[in-house]
Every structure is written in structure tokens, then in C-alpha cells.
Design goal:
Layout: H1 3-31, H2 35-47, H3 51-59, H4 66-88, H5 101-114, E1 118-127, H6 130-142, E2 147-152, H7 161-173, E3 177-183, H8 188-191, H9 195-202, E4 205-209, H10 214-219, E5 225-226, E6 230-233, E7 237-241, E8 260-261, E9 264-269, H11 272-287, H12 291-298, E10 309-316, H13 324-335, E11 339-343, E12 347-348, H14 351-362, E13 366-372, H15 378-385, H16 388-393, E14 397-401, E15 405-406, E16 409-413, E17 417-421, E18 425-426, H17 427-431, E19 433-441, H18 443-458, E20 460-462, H19 465-469, H20 473-483
Parallel strand pairs: 2-3, 3-4, 5-19, 8-15, 11-13, 12-18, 13-14
Antiparallel strand pairs: 1-9, 1-10, 2-6, 6-7, 7-9, 10-19, 11-16, 14-20, 16-17, 17-19
Helix pairs in contact: 1-2, 2-3, 4-11, 5-13, 6-7, 7-9, 13-14, 15-20
Length: 489
């Protein structure tokens, strides 16, 4: 190639890059993301010709595709009819006089921004031992008469997880409608093994959600994940929490972080309906089968109130609830008056969450955050550490859990109001994952969850602010460099 031809090619390539960068840059600006996110993308688009623009088109927006958008609209309409039935049954008539003043306001916020009403007449039992959880789920499945629907991010073969698998096979063989939905990426190793074939051979429907791949990336964002953990048995029992369908003794034993430590709740009463509808709704989004038909086949009928707890079930994810979960999280933090205890495996929060936590500490609330000492992601580990100084300087206590990868996602405010479910305190959970969260207005449950958190604290050590401030410049630079990527995680 002659010098003249080479220069001509370079000029054309540069012009094309500039035009693409301009077009994508205008798109970024008109989408109005957070300034930090926008600047990060504009920077990548300019310095990485073509690659930056392609990356933005693949993962820069919460695109979910036309078909999924249509199905979510249909799902939200069906859920609206369900909420109307709940109101007709007076299940939303909560006695707020027995709760803190801020509870009613937080519930009102959830109703407005997430379309989720607080329901009275709920009962929930807290579990923190993996073996007990898996065996209890298997036992509940053995009592199923109509339907079992399970939604999980990860399913891993081995140990007590296999007891659940065998219970599903037994249920399907006696005529119970059984459905298993797992995330296409999180459960990929399991999906490639022999257990899904065993389930299908027994009559269990097994499907994967949110397929990944370059071609899928042009239809909708390919890194959106189904992070929910739900088990629905008939219309009487539901399970949810932080635990995947795994036995921690058999899961990621070579990652160097120890066993995963989780908590789950077993629910009965009114809250089973919206949680079950969420699980069936995920199935509807993947298959197109109407929610009403799924509910009939699963045996999800009218729910009879049971218990004294008041619970607000809040779904979240692209196309479903916007920033509703973030608003609820901020509302809970801002409502705390005396104590706020949070547990999360990954602490890469939205800046507004950092400000809210610092503000709570500044007004005299004792704020404690418990995170694992070791996590399974180098990038997340460093990004998380970059937030410690800001929080420590504001008086927030940060505790490193030593006995494994603490995976429980929980918040207890003033020992009376709780947040519990699948959402991590990171921007992926708040913006990209499909999550399920319980806001529990019940002092008894809050006390039990707070007691569990105290056991985590007993196995943790507090970060000393002065010692943290003396870290080497190399450590500080590395943490802060990874923090620049946090809006894109």
C-alpha cells in the first residue's frame, strides 16, 4: 500500500470514528444517565475507536428488547389486577399505629414508585443454616399438591442441594406441576450437566432466563441477570433470601473465600401471593404463557392471611420498576433514628447511598456495615475498598467478616423495620439485575434478624479509621482506579 493510500485510509477511518463517537455521544447525553456514568462512557467512546461505541451499544443502556418490553407491560397489567384483588380483600389495610412513624411513609413510597402495597397477615421464619434450608425446602416440596415454581440465579450440583432435586422429581412423578427457572449465565455449569435432563425426564419443566451472547446483545442488553431466589409451593408456602440452590460445602471451594454464608425466610400468608406472582411472572417473560394460566396450573389461588407481620414485596429490574428500589433503600436509611445495621457481600453503592449513610451517621444514628473480608471478585474488592474512607470519616463502622463469604443481604433500622432479600449494595443489583426484596414491618422479625447480624459482628473485626488512613499510596491508587469503573459494573 502506498503512503498516499495509507493516509487516505487513516483519514476515512478517523472520520468514521469521529462521526460514530459524535452520534453515540449525543445518544448518551440525551439518555441523561448520572454524570459520572455519562462521562465514563464518553471517555471510553473517544479513546477506544469503535470498541467503545460497540461496548456502549451492548451494555451502556438498560435495553430489554421489544418482545420483553411487551411481555413486561402485560405482566404489570396482570399484577395490577392482583393488587386490586388484594385491596378488595382488605389485605392492604395495615394498622400503622403499631409501627414507627416512618414505616407508613416508607410503605406509601413503595406503593407509589413500585406499585407494591404492604400486606397484613403474613408470617415469616428466619433460617441461617444451609443444610436446614435445603432439607426444609425439600420437605415442603414433598407436601405439594398442585404446583412448585422455583427461580434461582445459581443451581449447583452436590450435597444437600440434591435433596431438593430428588423432591422435585418425586413431586412431578405424582402429578404436581413443577417449574424451574435459572439464570442462563449464573447456572450455566449446572445447565450443561446431567441434572436438568433428569428433571425433564421426570416431567419437570426446566428453562433458562436471559440468554447471553453477542447476537442477543443487539436485541437487548446481554448482561442483565435474573438474580432472584424464590420457591413457591402451591398457594401456601414461599421461600426467599440470599441463598442460591447450592450446598456451600460443594460450591466454589477453590475460590479462596471460604464457604458462602446466607439466610433465607419461609413465608406463609398474604405475602405468598405477590412473591409467587413474581416467580410466575419471570416464567411468563421467558415463555409468553399468560400469568393467569400459570397461576391456575401452579395452584396459586386466593391467599388466606396468616401471621402478624406486615410485608411489602418489592420487585425490581429493568423495565419493571425504574429506580423504585433505590428510592426505597434511601427511604429506609433516612428513616433510621438510632441504629442502622447492614450486611452485604458487595459494597459498590450508588453515590446517593453513600451520602445517605454518611448523613445518617452525622445525625447520630449508629451505622454499621458488615462485609466479607474476602470476596470472589478482585475488581469488586478494590472498588468496594475505595468507599471505606468516606464512610469511616463520617463515623460509619465497617466490619470485615472472617468466617467465609458473607452473602446475606439485610438491613435492620432501629430494631423494628427490616429489608431482606436478594439485592446487594452495588449498582449492578440496583440497576441491572432482576431482584426481589422484602420490606418487613415487624419488630419480632427485626429482632431475630438483628440477632443474626450480631453473630456476624461477633465473627468480624472493625476497620480502624486511623490505620486505614495510613494505607500505602499504591493501595489507595489501585482502589480508586477500580472505583472509576464502578458506574459500569
Amino acid at each position: 500500500m502506498s503512503v498516499e493510500s495509507f493516509n487516505h485510509s487513516v483519514a476515512i477511518t478517523t472520520l468514521v470514528h469521529l462521526l460514530i463517537a459524535l452520534a453515540i455521544g449525543i445518544r448518551v447525553i440525551m439518555r441523561r444517565p448520572a454524570p459520572g456514568v455519562a462521562l465514563a462512557w464518553l471517555f471510553l467512546i473517544v479513546i477506544l475507536p469503535f470498541v467503545g461505541a460497540l461496548s456502549y451499544l451492548l451494555i451502556g443502556e438498560r435495553r430489554i428488547g421489544a418482545q420483553r418490553t411487551h411481555r413486561i407491560d402485560s405482566l404489570l397489567g396482570a399484577l395490577g389486577e392482583q393488587r386490586g384483588a388484594m385491596q378488595w380483600e382488605h389485605l392492604t389495610e395495615v394498622d400503622w399505629s403499631r409501627h414507627p412513624a416512618g414505616a407508613a411513609r416508607l410503605s406509601r413510597l413503595g406503593t407509589k414508585v413500585a406499585g407494591s402495597s404492604t400486606l397484613r397477615g403474613c408470617d415469616l421464619e428466619l433460617f441461617c443454616d444451609a443444610e436446614t434450608v435445603l432439607q426444609a425446602i425439600a420437605d415442603d416440596i414433598d407436601t405439594a399438591k398442585s404446583g412448585v415454581c422455583m427461580t434461582f440465579y445459581i443451581w449447583n450440583q452436590g450435597g444437600y442441594a440434591d435433596a431438593v432435586l430428588e423432591a422435585l422429581i418425586r413431586a412431578a412423578q405424582r402429578g404436581v406441576t413443577c417449574r424451574v427457572l435459572v439464570d442462563a449465565l449464573g447456572a450455566r455449569p449446572w445447565l450443561r450437566g446431567g441434572q436438568p435432563q433428569r428433571l425433564r425426564a421426570a416431567g419437570v419443566e426446566v428453562k433458562s432466563a436471559l440468554p447471553v451472547g453477542i447476537l442477543h446483545g443487539f436485541v437487548g442488553r446481554t448482561d442483565l441477570r435474573l438474580h432472584r431466589k424464590i420457591v413457591l409451593i402451591d398457594d401456601g408456602v414461599a421461600w426467599t433470601g440470599s441463598m442460591n440452590l447450592v450446598d456451600p460445602r460443594m460450591f466454589k471451594q477453590d475460590s479462596g473465600v471460604g464457604q458462602w454464608v446466607d439466610a433465607m425466610v419461609r413465608l406463609r400468608g398474604s405475602a405468598v401471593a405477590p412473591l409467587g406472582a413474581m416467580a410466575l411472572g419471570d416464567w411468563m417473560l421467558e415463555t409468553g404463557v399468560p400469568l393467569e394460566e400459570l397461576a391456575r396450573s401452579a395452584g396459586l389461588a386466593r391467599i388466606v392471611p396468616s401471621g402478624e407481620a406486615d410485608i411489602q414485596v418489592v420487585p425490581s429490574g429493568p423495565g419493571e420498576s425504574g429506580d423504585a428500589l433505590l428510592q426505597m433503600l434511601l427511604g429506609l436509611i433516612n428513616a433510621a433514628e438510632e441504629e442502622l445495621v447492614l450486611t452485604t457481600p458487595y459494597l459498590v453503592p450508588d453515590e446517593s447511598v453513600v451520602w445517605a449513610l454518611r448523613g445518617a451517621s452525622g445525625r447520630g444514628v449508629q451505622v454499621s456495615i458488615i462485609v466479607p473480608e474476602r470476596v470472589d471478585s478482585l475488581l469488586t474488592r478494590h472498588a468496594s475498598r475505595s468507599y471505606f474512607a468516606d464512610l469511616l470519616n463520617a463515623g460509619v463502622g465497617i466490619f470485615l467478616y472472617r468466617k467465609g463469604l458473607l452473602h446475606t443481604k439485610s438491613i435492620v433500622a432501629d430494631g423494628r423495620t427490616s429489608m431482606f432479600g436478594t439485592v446487594n449494595l452495588d449498582m449492578r443489583s440496583l440497576w441491572l439485575n432482576y431482584e426481589n426484596t422484602l420490606f418487613v414491618y415487624d419488630a419480632d422479625f427485626a429482632g431475630k434478624l438483628r440477632a443474626l447480624q450480631q453473630t456476624y459482628l461477633a465473627d468480624s473485626h472493625a476497620i480502624d479509621p486511623d490505620q486505614w488512613a495510613r494505607r500505602s499510596p499504591k493501595e489507595c491508587f489501585l482502589d480508586n482506579a477500580f472505583r472509576l469503573m464502578s458506574p459500569l459494573l
